[in-house]
Every structure is written in C-alpha cells, then in structure tokens.
Amino acid sequence: MQEKDARQKRFEELKAQAEADDEERKSAAPGGTVAVTMEDFEADWNASQFWYDEETSRALAEELVEGVEEDDHVALVSAPSVFVKLKNLMKDGLVPKCNIHLFEYDNRFTLFGPEFTFYDFNEPLKLPLKFKGFFDRVLVDPPFLSEECQTKAAITVRWLAKSWTGIVGGNTGRPDGVGSRQEHRIIVCTGERMKDVVTKMYGKAGVRCTGFEVRHAQGLSNEFRCYANFESGRLKWEN
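Given the sequence above, the corresponding structure tokens read:
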C-alpha cells in the first residue's frame, strides 16, 4: 500500500511538472527537466499491459527513428514503453529529434498532453481526422493475441500511415545494429503465433517476421517477435 501511494504521488508530481513545463518537454531539448520512466507506471496485467525490458525498448526506439528528419511524424500505437523511451533518448540527444505521438487506452499517459490521443482498438478509426495518412513511421503492439484485436489494430495502422507500399530496406553493416535510412517504416510487435494474421494484414506494406525477439520486463510465456517492412543490423527477416 505504501509503495502504491508513493507511486501515485510520484505520478501526480510528474503530471504537474509536465503541465508546467510543456514547451520544454515538447521540444525534447537535451537537459530538459521532465524525466519520466516506465517505472512511474505500474503495469496492469488484467488490461494486458506488459512493458518491454530496457534493451528491447531502446532497440525498438532506435530502429523506429533511425534516419528520420526533424519534421517527420512517428506514431506509437499501444506501445507506451517505446514512446517513453523515445522521449528520454531525444531529451538526451541520443536519437534524432522528430514529432512523436502516442495512441493509447491508458489515460495515465495524458500527462504527455498534445502528444497523447486516447485509443481503443475496438473502435479502430475513432481518431481525429487530422491523423489520417499523417505518419511517416508507425510502431504498433496490439494489446491482445487475438485475430480480432490484431485485425483492428492493423486497420488503425493502415489509416495512420502515409504509405502502405512495401519498401525493401538495406543493412548498413554498422556494428551498433542501427538500420539504414527508409522514409516509411512499419514495426509490429506481437506474438509469434500471430504470424499468419500479421502477414495477411500487413503483407502489402512489406511487413515480414524478423528474428528479433521482443522481451518484457515482467517476463511472458508467449514468444514475442518483431515484424517489420525493412531490415537492419538488428532486424533480419526470417526465410
């Protein structure tokens, strides 16, 4: 109980700080004052919330924004741990700056203000019209391993994405594993057993299963994979 109260107090402090310092936070300038981590958000397993571990969050964040331009727009759909990691990496000047936006059911993330939009996969197109075909890159992690959830999430991604044409990515051979420049990237993180559904829904966008294993901080029995429409040093398509 004491831990829960402390977490709630910390969350309220972060929310107040974010509201008071919105411009600095939004610019993600190095040395900014807001430092939110996923430890500030207790995962609700009943709501199918499972945060990525540190290594996975960082890898996905780096792959998603590698080579972006500052005016590019990047969407995170039901993937708050990657969103938060990106905020901190940009704040510290460790990845290129761009415009990122979180679409998420959990209203605790409203503390990110204009970078947050409430999203329920049951209503895949109930989103502000301004976001239709708006995003250069999209990462999605559907909350449930069901065909219905995966299909509806894919409808959302298709609606948000600027492009739905598969583009063959290249491997730069860089030792850090960061990929090559590709304007339109789509990353899907979900269970390995959803491979057929993902291939069906994202096939025209060039999304294929990679060998990159998605790991969660809480540990899950289901094997999770990363599907992408590009390859890099870290993300290699399976044969």
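Strands lie at 73-77, 99-104, 116-118, 137-140, 185-191, 208-213, 224-228. Try to locate this feature in the token string yourself.
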